[in-house]
Amino acid sequence: MTGECNRYQMALSASLDGELDTEATRALFFHLAECERCRLFWNSSIRIERELLKEERIRASTALDARVASIGRLGRLGGFGKSLKQSLLRPLLDRAATSPSTLGEKVAQERVSFPYSFAAIVSILAVALGYILGTVQPWLENTMNEREPQVVYVSVLPDITVVGHLTE
Amino acid sequence: MSQSSLTERRLVEHLRLGSREAFGQIYVRYKGSLCNYCYWLVKEKDRAEDIVHETFLKVWNNIGTLDDSSSFRSWLFTIARNQALLFLRDRRPFEELTDESSSENDDPLHALISTELSDSISSLLNALSPAYRELIVLRVYEGLSYAEIASVTGLSLSAVRVHLYRARKALARLYNEQYGDKDDG
User: Fold this and answer.
1) Where does the pLDDT of residue B134 fall: very low under 50, low under 70, confident under 90, or very high at 90 and above?
2) Which residues in chain A (11-70) have CB-CB distances under 8 A to chain B?
3) pLDDT confidence band for A86 (50 / 70 / 90)
4) Is the pLDDT of residue B14 over 60?
């Protein structure tokens, strides 16, 4: 095949895609009339394109419809709110929107994991709660103790034994 | 307000304003194309749907960053492509999708035989290199223009033109081998 045929076939490909101007297309078809190789390429390309378009295409499932439908529910957030929404609420909404069988399959197929930000937030909250309990509880106890002074009543006195004699 | 007759440009403008109805219409309009495109990139239907979901999540949150409403379609496909590349990067070497050296030097017929493909015409696509396959899917199935394909893939216009020609040539060779026509050389 000549270099000229290469150029023509590249133009044929562009023509098939509607990306060639009229003048260039006209010149192209003059060549096509006299070149069997280019004609074969042209015919094959058209046939393949038709066959491809006849093929059944991948279709979106209803589970995807439900998942995408949940996207707009919380509105748009920015910054921290956005990451919080995506890390905490989005997985919950997605799971809620997924049918039980699909969710079961997903759990079986994927390892169960929490988002890092979710784990980080829970950890921070736990530490903060521990700190608060650790500082507030003794403080409360001290405060209670200060408010009400304790009075100790001694109700039972020990027996007193007198040893020895009194002398003047 | 019924937005069924709105043009894509106006739908995008409504989406910018936070219209969920516009978002839904855009989703209905593009879900098939994106699922099909992502499927041909990652070859797994479930993963393709995950990618499409992530794509629309990004569309909803980042529509404000789109400068020109008329380029929405290529923006949408670019997001989907980036999400698919992220998935493929984690799953297998990145260069499988972006490798452009695997062109005419490869033997597509050998790939066809070794993968035991069916007689279906779309199975011929599987024998193409991922880069060529992506161009054919974007052009033939999704009907994107050369300019849009260039925008989505990051190739120049002339590269799109040349690679589509090479992809067609490889496909024609496969087709003729498979169905017994004469080789076009």
Assistant:
1) very high
2) 13-14, 16-17, 19, 37, 40-41, 44-45, 47-49, 51-55, 57-61, 63-65, 67-69
3) low
4) yes
**Given its phi and psi angles, is residue A56 left (phi above 0), alpha (psi -120 to 50 degrees) or beta?**
beta
Q: Which of A57-61, B14-18, B61-65, B89-93 has the lowest mean pLDDT?
A: B89-93
| Fold match flag (B8-91 vs B99-179) | no
Please check whether residue A108 touches B, CB under 8 A: no
CB B35 within 8 A of CB B56: no
Pick B99-179's CATH classification: 3.40.50.2300, 1.10.10.10, 1.20.1730.10, 1.10.3720.10.
Answer: 1.10.10.10
Over pLDDT 90: what percentage of chain A? 19
- State the pLDDT confidence band at B96, using cuts at 50, 70 and 90: low
Would you tell me the crossing angle of helices B72-91 and B146-153 to the nearest 10 degrees? 40
Nearest one of B80, B68, B60 to B16, comparing CA atoms:
B60
ipTM of predicted complex:
0.75
Question: What is the CATH code for B8-91?
Answer: 1.10.1740.10
Distance linking the first and last C-alpha atoms of chain B: 57
Nearest to A41 among B49, B141, B172 (CB): B172
pLDDT of residue B90: 84
Q: Are residues B35 and B48 in contact, defined by beta-carbon separation less than 8 angstroms?
A: yes
Distances (CA, A) of A55 to A49, B47, B140, B141, B168: 10, 21, 12, 10, 17
Whether residue A140 is predicted with pLDDT greater than 60 in this model: the reply is yes
Interface touch B49/A19, C-beta < 8 Å: no
- Give me the residue label for tokens 């994927």: A110
Q: Are A44 and B176 in contact (CB under 8 A)?
A: yes
- What pLDDT is recorded for position B167? 96
Domain ranges of chain B: 8-91, 99-179
For residue B161, how many other CB atoms are within 10 A of its CB? 21
